[in-house]
Amino acid sequence: MAFPAKFPSLNAMEMTDEARRTLVRVLRVAFPHENFPDGPYERTADKILVEADAETWFRVALIQGLQSLDQLSDKSFCSLNDDEALRVLRRVEGTEFFGFVRRTAALGLYDDEEVWEILGYQGPSFDLGGYVNRGFNDLDWLPEPRILYPEGEDLPELGPGAHLGPQTVNVADESTNQPSAEQADMGEVKR
Predict the structure, then answer these.
(1) Residues 137, 108, 5, CA angle at the centre, nearest 5°?
(2) Are 41 and 105 in contact (CB under 8 A)?
(3) Chain-wide mean pLDDT for the chain?
(4) Domain boundaries, the chain
(5) By C-alpha distance, which of 41, 109, 101 is closest to 69?
(6) Measured between alpha carbons, how far is 130 from 6 in angstroms, rounded to an integer?
(7) Phi, psi at residue 174, to the nearest 5°?
(8) 99-120: per-residue pLDDT in tens?
(9) Distance set, CA 174 to CA 88, 110, 152, 179 (Å)
């Protein structure tokens, strides 16, 4: 629920077309992807505007934050090259304005189906039975996972082209301080 601001003039603040263009530019500089078209950035800006419109505090922070970018750059923020624009954004990265834009954009931009296609993400899999049955390990840019076996256990014999599937290993993981299944059954936990 959005409450009216104490000062009616704050309720009347609205985004201009120029402010929206500046917001799209902020998104391009803060989340740089050369191969992303304008569409995902514009849709993300629209999501931010909807969120800001629902809360007076965020709307005011967004409008004032966008206006401050031109003041900090001594000219139109949209006319800056990427390096100059990034320097300006670094000056406001600790503000409520930038925090609101960052957290809303991080979810909105990467939840765009056009972005999924560009990045090679196949989309959510829960309605298709999960990733295990859909080739979860088809990412050719990841190294093969290390499979650890308990001391004294022999490695399985593999034929040519064979692939080890996931293995259950009953050893404590020292890096995460998690007990093995046997230790958990005995109530032993490393402290």
Answers:
(1) 155
(2) no
(3) 78
(4) 8-119
(5) 101
(6) 49
(7) -60, -30
(8) 999 999 999 999 999 999 999 8
(9) 44, 34, 18, 9
